[in-house]
Input
Amino acid sequence: MIDQDTSANMLEVLETEGLRTDGEAGRFRLELDAAASAAAHGDFSRRMPQNFQDPEFNRSAETFNELLAVLQESYSEISRIVSALADGNLAVRVEKRSCGRFEQIYRKFDLTLATLRKVLGESGSMRFAEVATNFTRMTATFMTERSDLDIKIANDESKPLASPARALWDRLFRAF
Output
């Protein structure tokens, strides 16, 4: 995420690049550019001020801020669900409801998790949680020991190489 200093620096950069014109329209465009740039970099917390003299600018800023709020809430919910799943929690459920595409994603998450619970059953779900916990522990240890990993994309001609990453994968595969 972009911190407040970086976000403030964006305003300065936009000003120096000549994107700002005199007057309220220029200030509006500058604020919009900064908020949109922050969102494009994963920071949905930045909001546009709504202190313009022109009510149309305030209405547009409010609408844009509502969009950012929906994106921030949806990202947080998806992140919560994926984190719980990575921790082996198949009982997690979507708590926030939405509309449109986000609601479709939430329903697919719920359906996927319900399918996993049904396929694995109670004992399989417990085993999944155990393996996920072990995997998290192993990858945390592995990542602290090896921070210089060079990840390569596999293709049809790729052959497994003897490496710490390959050894970790083999251990995980055997865990199932």
In short: The helical segments are 4-16, 24-40, 55-86, 100-145, 164-175. The longest helix spans residues 100-145.
